[in-house]
Amino acid sequence: MLKFVSRERETPMKRNSGERRRDFDEIYARFADDHASTQASRCSQCGVPFCSDHCPLGNDIPDWLKAVAEGRLEDAYALSSATNNMPEVCGRICPQDRLCEGSCVIEQSGHGTVTIGSVEQYITETAWDKGWIKPVKPAEERPQSVGVIGAGPAGLAAAEELRKEGFQVKVYDRYDRTGGLLVYGIPNFKLEKHVVSRRTEHLEKSGVQFIRNFEVGRDATLAELRADHDAILIATGVYKARDLVCPGSGNNGVIAALDYLTASNRKGLGDDVAAFNTGDLDASGKSVVVIGGGDTAMDCVRTAVRQSATSVICLYRRDRKNMPGSLREVANAEEEGVIFEWLAAPKGVKGDAAKANGIRVSKMELGEPDESGRRAPVEIDGAEFDIDADMVIKALGFEAEDLPALFNEPDLKVTPRGTLRVDGATLETNIPGVYAAGDIVRGASLVVWAIVDGRKAAAAITMQLNSANITPIAAE
After folding, report:
1. pTM of the entire structure?
2. How far, CA to CA in Å, does 147 sit from each of 123, 173, 234, 461?
3. Out of 5-9, 269-273, 452-456, which region has the weakest mean confidence (pLDDT)?
4. Three-state secondary structure call for residue 209
5. Could you say which DSSP state residue 384 is in?
6. Percent of the chain residues past pLDDT 70, beyond the cut
7. Domains contained in the chain, number
8. Residue 64 sits in which domain range?
């Protein structure tokens, strides 16, 4: 260990921008064995591991880096998977530059961070290859059942934890595939879909039942599901797009980010997508402007590049330093030809209801900090300009749907933001035996936080059901 003084930081090989613009394959190769161990050996094994402290899951990063450096890969996987139900996903899509790697001690001393995310991905991919990842076999089966609403990362993490305890778990999801935004929201160049389907198959082999194309409120009310299960976990995520508020925002050609990304991902999966086939959700041959500065906006601009848009511009009302998305993703987008207009906000969409044909943009400057702690953007009087645009994509974030109405459960309490109100310690809602986890509680956030919440909710449900004192059944 402590080789950071003699070995430079390296990332896995990244495909050149010209090549990756032509397909949706992941852009990074997997670490070779010797490179993974070499990079892991750079860890300083510091006394206060800030990487772990700044990982929402509290992953034991220094210990599994040491295991990789010493060639103990099975031990490394045991450590990695002890705190994370999907390390191969987090290794790919977590914004490590803002979490573990951004807090690395040797990064702060100027030596360049350990490439934690890439090593994490390497560990788990090796575990899959070697057959170390086995279906869950609980020591004893319990008769109590738990219904999980939503098959995104929070629901999947909770389902696995509950199966480890021997509970009967049934996951209900509105989509025809399991994974939620992991499948339909995140493009392949960041997360190839076989990674998600492989994890789903693992859960099915572990005894988790998936009920797909199922909408609570349409196929059953929340009350009816409660009657079928001993506990319920709501892990629906947040899907309601924040709207663009300016003249012309309803023009044809102004579309929501999730509609755009879902269409692209479905096409990649081989589905027939009418709105893509007509060109409404296909950026090919178009001038594209994406409004927003988060990771969803980066997914949109990089998708448009791969769909052969003639130009792709990202408008963000703050500067690069204050954007919420991963700076690594911004760099990847710039390499692929995306133009960023910093300190720029839409004033209005040009054209008419039949067709958008441009955007009027206001230049901004940063004023005093707002409630988020970032300096608020302020419009500069008279500083306006126009940008050509055939397609305008709104990537302004997501809000909660009206679950009390959708679930036909008016007693379900929500916060002023529309997210579900829960007990902070247990994640139980105001309805006894009904819990909630992930974005539907905390608002639009990271996959890693959804996994944190899913594990926390599963632990609380386990404690509640164990207190019922029902005799378990010995597993065969």
Report:
1. 0.94
2. 32, 11, 9, 11
3. 5-9
4. strand
5. E
6. 98
7. 3
8. 3-130
